[in-house]
Specification:
Shape: globular
Radius of gyration: 23 Å
Mean pLDDT: 86
Structural class: alpha+beta
Order of helices and strands: HHEHEEHHHHEEEEEEHHEHEEHEEEH
Number of domains: 2
CATH topology of the largest domain: Fumarylacetoacetate hydrolase, domain 2
Low-confidence stretches: none
CATH class of the largest domain: Alpha Beta
Number of strands: 15
């Protein structure tokens, strides 16, 4: 694996290199390397359409070199300044946005920590060591609702360790909740929002299944199920406040439909990578392996859309996150929390990358385009008939 450098380490590496080569040489090498990777991904450049988003300073210069190299190979290249680059819309419209909670043993322990810490991040480290020792091995490979799971439940109750999160983690019934309202999710490149009063929060990198009104999984995307650990830790009844805020749900960059080359087995084998980069030099990287999910993705779909509940406009279903950042940030023992300006990148082979910048929900662009606005827009463009017609 290639090492990941912090901003300060990268600056030091650049300074050391500039002692031996010119700045122009470094820019040329970097831009050429980007072009080589792009050619490999594209399978050649001739006739291909490429958009290069060029940031400020040397990074923007690298992008211009890459653009020139791709043009020489026959690509149709458009260069867009980072400040002018539009965010993509979330690739779902009227579909309900649902989420499955506590579907990995690792994140299950984190939910129990939240509950026992009562929203206090400073108490998390000691609890994490205690609970991982008590529960970690017991939960690995355990099938929810199985006789073994029920035996473990009885033992944990006897020891005073039972939790509402363990109930949905290893019990017979999956936790399925509404993450956001239809059309309220943001897409790749948009800002994602945290409640301004939250002091302990995290991204949740997940695969999101696109499902039809018949309850069939028809495709997949990536998602960020932004979570407020302090709010939910104080009370599970604050779940809606912890999960559903303005711009607190990101889905993208696209929905890849299932076909002969990509299907549910690819989802089951997916590795979802989370990268967080802060303006303060903080960085963290971690992976969620779908093969370690405790409930099969199609079982979660069946638990969502069934005889007791239908979704006539289809639904998007977050499958849960295994990796939850816990690296200290504000001080020893304080664990992870976001700072505004963080760049969150979620990626997976065959599903691309979803990147967003963190802000607070009161500062993110307000959600104004809902179902009524959609119907009005369609009618104004003559795409649906109105009552007067």
């Amino acid at each position: 694996m290639l090492p990941v450098l912090t901003r300060d380490e990268m600056r030091a590496a650049d300074a050391a290199a500039l002692a031996h080569v010119t700045h122009e040489t470094l820019v040329t090498r970097a831009g050429t390397a980007v072009a080589i990777v792009a050619l490999d991904v594209l399978g050649g450049a001739y006739g291909k359409r490429v958009t290069v988003v060029a940031g400020k300073g040397s990074n923007g210069a690298d992008g211009l070199v890459a653009a020139a190299a791709l043009r020489r190979r026959g690509a149709r290249v458009e260069v867009v300044g980072a400040a002018d680059a539009p965010a993509l819309l979330a690739p779902c419209d009227l579909a309900a946005i649902k989420a499955a909670g506590v579907t990995f043993a690792d994140s299950l322990i984190e939910r129990v920590i939240e509950e026992r810490a009562k929203g206090d991040a400073a108490a998390a480290n000691a609890l994490r060591a205690e609970l991982t020792g008590l529960l970690g091995g017991s939960l690995t490979g355990l099938k929810p609702g199985s006789p073994a799971a029920m035996a473990l439940k009885a033992a944990l109750i006897e020891r005073g360790l039972w939790s509402q999160y363990l109930e949905v983690g290893i019990g017979p019934d999956a936790e399925i909740f509404t993450k956001a309202q239809p059309m309220s999710a943001v897409g790749c490149g948009a800002q994602i929002g945290l409640h301004p009063k939250s002091e302990w929060n995290n991204p949740e990198p997940e695969v999101v299944l696109a499902c039809s009104s018949r309850g069939e999984a028809v495709g997949a995307a990536l998602g960020n199920d932004v979570n407020l650990r302090d709010f939910e830790g104080r009370s599970a009844l604050l779940l809606s406040k912890a999960k559903d805020n303005n711009a607190s749900c990101a889905i993208g960059p696209f929905i890849r439909l299932f076909d002969a080359s990509f299907g549910i087995d690819d989802v089951r084998r997916a590795k979802v990578r989370l990268e967080v980069r802060g303006a303060d030099g903080f960085s963290d990287v971690g992976d969620s392996l779908l093969e370690r999910i405790s409930r099969d993705p199609l079982d979660l779909v069946a638990a969502t859309c069934c005889a007791e509940h239908q979704y006539p406009d289809g639904f998007m279903l977050f499958l849960g996150a295994m990796y939850v950042p816990t690296k200290d940030r504000r001080g020893a023992g304080q664990g992870f929390t976001h700072e505004t300006g963080d760049v969150v990148r979620i990626s997976a082979d065959k599903l691309g990358a979803l990147a967003n910048t963190v802000t607070t929900s009161d500062r993110a662009a307000p959600w104004t385009f809902g179902a009524r606005a959609l119907m009005r827009s369609l009618a104004e463009r003559g795409l649906i008939a109105t009552g007067s017609q």
